[in-house]
Amino acid sequence: MGNAGLRVVLAEDGVLLREGLAAVLERFGHHVVAAVGDAEALTEAVDEQEPDILVTDVRMPPGFSDEGLRAAVDLQARHPRLGVLVLTQYVAPTYAFELLEADGRGRVGGLGYLLKDRVGAVREFVSAVERIAEGDTVIDPEVVRQLLRRERSAHLLGRLTPREREVLALMAEGRANAAIAEHLCVSQAAVAKYINAIFTKLDISGAEGHHRVLAVLTYLRN
């Protein structure tokens, strides 16, 4: 499936933000097949429309706790190819872990967790939507930075060189080797060597894709 013309269900209780997100996605050639304001409506919309990706707030009516996140996790269990991008106003790594750890058997849809502030960078936001629809994992850089700043993580990460820490942060954001190489202006072979060194020093089992991101984030959390 190409990126052009994705079918999107959008769930956001704030009317202005919901309409703004819909307008952005439509401008880039995607189709918002449903735009709703509560968790029950988002569940019904995904079951009915079977979109390529769901973009949802964490906190939704009626309880404004984590209804959007819970609905997204349940829906991806029923629709394994559904991409899910969860948006949140606050940096809450716990929500990111809950989303990633709900990895059901046979799930192939991508996962994303971004701060709403990131939506202001329009092309970055749309790129994230497209990557997730293709099966990638995208984690907000600020969530990664907070995990890296934690005291225990900082102590354990002392095993790594400064460049290896850079690579680890980019891995945790969900970037593929090619994207890391481009960002750091090094070869992909060099990136592969850094990653092997990181996994060895941190005793993380080798993994790819979503599982690679989960392994890295789990290490940082623990």
From TrEMBL:
PROSITE patterns: HTH_LUXR_2, RESPONSE_REGULATORY. The modification 4-aspartylphosphate is found at residue 57. This is Two component transcriptional regulator, LuxR family. SMART domains: HTH_LUXR, REC. It comes from the Bacteria. Keywords: DNA-binding, Phosphoprotein, Transcription, Transcription regulation. It comes from Streptoalloteichus tenebrarius (strain ATCC 17920 / DSM 40477 / JCM 4838 / CBS 697.72 / NBRC 16177 / NCIMB 11028 / NRRL B-12390 / A12253. 1 / ISP 5477). Residues 153-222 form the HTH luxR-type domain. Residues 7-131 form the Response regulatory domain.
